[in-house]
Design the sequence.
C-alpha cells in the first residue's frame, strides 16, 4: 500500500516562474492537506481539500497560491510568479476522514533563485 | 498567534535514559493531540495520540501525558535509543478547527 507520494522531491525555479507541486494521497483517502515548512520553523497549515472541494484555505497566501484536488488525479499546489520567500519544504498529507491522523509525504523542497 | 508551543528547540539525552518532550497549547477547544517524528529529508510520521478524555496513553517505549487544566502535554520515551534522534512535533486539533495545528518542533539527540 503506497503512502502519500509527492513529486518532484526537489524543484528549482527562477523568480517569476510558476511552480507546480503534486501529491497523490494514500489510496482511499479523500482528505488532503498541504503544509509549508520554512527553514528553522514548524509546519504551517496552508489548505485542506476534499475531492473537488476546498474546505479550508485560511493558511494560503491570498495571491499567487492556489490548490486543487480533482476527481481524478493528484492534488496540485500551484505557485505563480514565485519569489525567494516561497523557498521552503511543502508537505502534503492525507487521511481517510477528518478525525484520523494524517499521513505525510516526503515533501517537495522548492528553491527559488 | 502560536496556538501550540514547544519551547525547547533541542534536547540531548544519553542512550538508555528517559527523554521528555514538552508541549503547551492555548486553545481550550483542542480535544485531540498527536506527536509526530521527523527525520531529515522525510515527511513527519505519526507516533502516538491522545484524546482529551484521557490523561495518559502508552505505546511501547512511548507515553503521552495530558494535563488539561495546565494545557500541557508531554511525550516520554524510555529507554531512549540513538534511532530516536529526530525532530518531534506536537500537534492539536479540536471541534472548532478542521486542521492539525503544529508546534515548532524539538530536536532530540540521543547519544551513546
Sequence:
Amino acid at each position: 500500500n503506497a503512502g502519500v507520494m509527492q513529486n518532484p522531491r526537489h524543484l528549482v525555479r527562477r523568480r517569476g516562474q510558476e511552480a507546480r507541486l503534486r501529491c497523490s494521497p494514500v489510496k482511499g483517502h479523500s482528505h488532503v492537506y498541504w503544509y509549508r515548512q520554512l527553514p528553522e520553523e514548524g509546519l504551517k497549515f496552508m489548505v485542506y481539500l476534499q475531492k473537488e472541494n476546498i474546505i479550508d484555505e485560511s493558511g494560503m497566501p491570498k495571491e499567487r497560491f492556489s490548490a486543487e484536488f480533482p476527481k481524478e488525479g493528484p492534488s496540485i499546489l500551484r505557485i505563480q510568479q514565485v519569489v525567494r520567500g516561497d523557498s521552503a519544504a511543502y508537505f502534503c498529507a492525507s487521511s481517510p476522514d477528518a478525525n484520523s491522523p494524517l499521513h505525510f509525504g516526503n515533501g517537495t523542497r522548492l528553491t527559488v533563485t | 498567534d502560536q496556538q501550540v508551543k514547544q519551547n525547547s528547540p533541542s534536547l540531548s539525552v544519553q542512550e538508555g535514559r528517559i527523554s521528555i518532550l514538552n508541549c503547551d497549547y492555548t486553545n481550550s477547544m483542542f480535544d485531540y493531540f498527536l506527536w509526530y517524528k521527523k527525520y531529515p529529508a522525510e515527511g513527519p510520521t505519526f507516533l502516538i495520540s491522545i484524546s482529551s478524555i484521557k490523561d495518559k496513553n502508552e505505546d511501547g517505549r512511548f507515553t503521552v501525558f495530558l494535563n488539561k487544566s495546565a494545557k500541557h502535554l508531554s511525550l516520554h520515551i524510555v529507554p531512549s535509543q540513538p534511532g530516536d534522534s529526530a525532530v518531534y512535533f506536537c500537534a492539536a486539533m479540536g471541534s472548532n478547527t478542521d486542521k492539525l495545528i503544529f508546534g515548532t518542533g524539538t530536536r532530540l539527540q540521543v547519544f551513546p
